[in-house]
Structure formats: C-alpha cells, structure tokens
Write a structure and sequence with these properties.
Layout lengths: L2 H32 L4 H23 L3 H5 L4 H11 L6 H10 L3 H12 L5 H18 L2 H17 L4 H18 L3 H12 L8 H17 L3 H14 L4 H14 L12 H6 L7 H26 L21 E7 L4 E8 L3 E11 L2 E11 L9 E4 L7 E7 L10 E7 L2 E11 L8 E4 L1
Antiparallel strand pairs: 1-2, 2-3, 3-4, 5-6, 5-9, 6-8, 7-8
Length: about 450
C-alpha cells in the first residue's frame, strides 16, 4: 500500500465533504435572508439544499470505491474507508475487502453477523448478494443457491428498474448453471452479463467476467481457451484473489493436471455468528443527528407559525408584498382553494393579491399587483392575475361607476379615500400559456 496515496485520498474526500457542508450552510442562510418569497417556500428550498448536500456527500465518499472497482486494490480501499468513515460503520466495506482478497471465511463471518441485525431490504440485498459470491467462490454451493433464491424473493418485493433486477438474475443463473455443470448455459449467462451497461462496467466487473468465462471453459474441457482468459486477468495484475487463482489454473493447464473446484463449507461460521455489539460512538452520532433533526423541525415550526399562510385572522395579517399594506378591503373566493384579496398601500395604491386558502381564514401569499388607484379607472382596461401553480387565471377590473359592470359579474364593493369602488371579476380561465404573472389586457 502507498501510504502517501492513502492519506492524500482521505484528505481529498474529507475536504470535499467539508466544502459541500460550507456551500450548503451558506446557501441555506442566503435563501433565508435574501430570497424575497414566502418563508414556507424558503424552508422548502432550504430542505432541498440539505437533501442535495447529503446526496453530494454520499457521492463524494463513494469516490473511494474507484480504488476497489477500477484500481482493483482492496487493501488501499480498506485503509481509505477506515479513514473517512466512523469506526464501526465499515462492516460492508470490510466484507468486500475480505472477499476480494480471497479470505472467504472472514467475509462470511462479517456478513452473517450483520444479517443478525435488523436491516433495510436494500441493505440486506447488498449483504446477501455479496454472500452469494463468497459462497460460490469458496465452494459452498448449497449456501450459494439458497442465498440466490433469498435475494430473488427480496428483489420481487422491491420496486426498481427491471434492468438492475435482471443483472442479478443473470448472475444467479450463471451460478446455478455452473454448479449443475451446464457449462453451455453458464457461458450464455456470462455473455448476457457482458452486455449489461457496457459503458458503466468497471475493471473489477470485466475481470470477473473473464474469470467466469475461464473457469467455465476449463471445466468444459477447453483448457487452451480457458488459458487465454486467465492470461487476460494476469496481464491486468489486479490485487484480487482471482489473480492467484488464474496463475494456479494456468500452471495446471501447462502441467496437464486437473484443478478441482474448491469446496469449503461456511455452515459452521453461520452457526457461530452473533450480532455485533453496538458501537457507542455510532450511537452518539445517531443521537446527535436525531437531536439536530428535532431542533430543525422546531425552528421550522416556529418560523412557519410567524409566516404568511400560517396565521389565523384577516388577510391583512398574511399578505406579503414589496410595499407596506395599509388597509385590506376584503377577500373574494375563487374556488375551494384560492381567493383574491383587495388591499391598499400607504402610497395611494390599490393592490390585488392571489391567496391560497388553508382553511379557517388562513392564507398564504402567492402573487400580487398594486397600482395607483386611478389607473384602474381608465376605460377598456381588463386586468388579469395568475397564481403560482394550477390555479385559474382571473380577469378583473375596478371601477367607480357601477353601470360599467357587466351583468353576472362577481362584485365586491369597498371604500378607499372616502370614495366607493367596485371590484368585479369578468372571467376565469383554467387553461392558459403563462403563469406566475399579472398584467393588463387592452
């Protein structure tokens, strides 16, 4: 192992994770302090930022898998994983490393112990799939086949891409065909697997396909063809157990001797497996996350309780506009979900706000328009206003002459600066091409 390379990789991954944290925290504060929108939407955006940050940190940490799957260097992978993950959280990585270096008993021991714990189905599938590989290469074929069947049952219970499930099934079909000495079927399975997501295949996958092909050819009495496949593995020089296996098979071919299939039972390891003790550090970290989550939820509830859309009372309490609201004249229901609100500003302006109803006179501000009140009184103007979302577009006008109002209009009377005005809705549209805007039709 290259110690400098290991330390450099650990530092690189940790620095990238810190950078993601800094960007996420800065973005969250920027959204909260500077984005001019309802605080409920700010909290939604902040939550999205947090989720994105967690996703990015996971992706950054998974860069370490390149060491295993592309560089084919399990020892370095082991050291890096133990450098970036908490102690006690590396069980799956440890089992992977044990498998790739050919320490099948250790790999099986870790897997059986982890399966004693309550795991999510997706995590359980990961462990069982690795166990199927371990059992196959160690020669415990009974365990291999039973494990394959267990994974298949779990996969049927999960939603997921059919192509992903198919890749599992094809591999297990290979195991079954090889174990049953159906080498023709096994070779077909390998060819199927070679054609799955070719552009995404990493070196470990390609080398494993060469190994599957080689052993199938070898036991179907085609030693020279098998030798050619084994030599491809040797030329790549992976730090995997299959390198030693390839050399052993080539030696047997050159000496015209026969190398039998390995047969090692893992049953005793399964019987002696016990659930690993809970690491206190992991428990502390988990408790910290729970406490932090509760704090964030409480802060969110407090902020929402003070935000437009979460208050009881009049629309005056909940309208959010760029200019100060001095007076609210009333609300006009549009349907069960939306209302319009007529308000005034201290600058001799009349505004119309689109509100989403939350029941019990609760509203959240969506979009508003304000203009000098006499601008509404120009003849032949028809104003419209849209809400964000699928709410109808509303065409309306305001006049001081009741005779101008078309028959059948929804009219709301209000007084502004001691004068009487009439707000009336001309029509509403549920289908239109523009949204999140207000304007004037001439």
């Amino acid at each position: 192992m290259d110690e400098k390379r290991i330390l450099s990789k650990i530092k690189e991954i940790k620095n990238k994770c810190r950078l993601v944290n800094i960007i996420a925290i800065t973005s969250a504060f920027a959204v909260y302090l500077f984005v001019p929108t309802n605080i409920a939407y700010k909290l939604i955006v902040i939550l999205a930022v947090i989720i994105l940050a967690v996703y990015l940190k996971t992706k950054v940490s998974l860069v370490a898998t390149d060491i295993l799957y592309n560089d084919c260097d399990p020892q370095t992978y082991y050291a890096v994983c133990h450098g970036i993950y908490l102690e006690g959280t590396t069980a799956f990585f440890d089992a992977q490393v044990a498998y790739f270096i050919g320490d099948f008993k250790s790999a099986a021991g870790i897997i059986f112990s982890q399966l004693k714990l309550k795991q999510r189905k997706t995590v359980k599938i990961q462990y069982l799939d690795l166990l199927a590989n371990v059992a196959f290469f160690s020669g415990d074929f009974e365990l291999c086949l039973s494990t394959c069947e267990e994974v298949k049952e779990l996969l049927q219970e999960l939603r997921g891409r059919a192509s992903v499930k198919e890749s599992y099934y094809v591999k297990y079909d290979f195991f079954q065909n090889f174990i049953n000495c159906d080498y023709v079927g096994a070779l077909k399975n390998v060819e199927q697997r070679k054609g799955v997501a070719v552009k995404k295949q990493r070196n470990s996958y390609k080398l494993t396909m060469h190994y599957y092909t080689a052993i199938t050819l070898y036991y179907s009495n085609k030693p020279q063809e098998a030798k050619a496949e084994f030599e491809k593995i040797i030329s790549a020089a992976p730090k995997f157990f299959i390198l030693d296996k390839a050399n052993a098979y080539i030696k047997a071919i050159d000496e015209d001797s026969f190398l039998p299939v390995d047969s090692v039972s893992l049953n005793e390891i399964r019987e002696n497996a016990i659930a690993p003790p809970q690491n206190p550090i992991i428990k502390q970290e988990r408790n910290k996350r729970i406490i932090m989550g509760i704090i964030l939820i409480v802060i969110g509830i407090v902020l929402l309780s003070k935000s437009p859309g979460a208050q009881n009372g009049t629309a005056y309490d909940v309208i959010s506009v760029d200019k100060e609201v001095s007076e609210v004249f009333g609300t006009v229901p549009i349907d069960d979900d939306y209302s319009l609100c007529i308000f005034a500003t201290p600058y001799d302006e009349i505004g119309v706000a689109y509100l989403k109803n939350h029941g019990e006179d609760r509203y959240s501000y969506y979009l508003s328009r304000s203009t000098m009140h006499y601008s509404f009184l120009k003849p032949d103007n028809v104003y419209y206003i849209d809400a964000i979302g699928k709410a109808p577009r509303v065409y309306y006008d305001i006049t001081d002459d009741k005779t101008e109002i078309p028959e059948g209009s929804n009219v709301t009377e209000f007084t502004f600066n001691d004068d009487t005005y009439y707000f009336y809705i001309i029509k509403t549209e549920t289908e239109y091409h523009f949204f999140n805007a207000s304007g004037v039709d001439y």
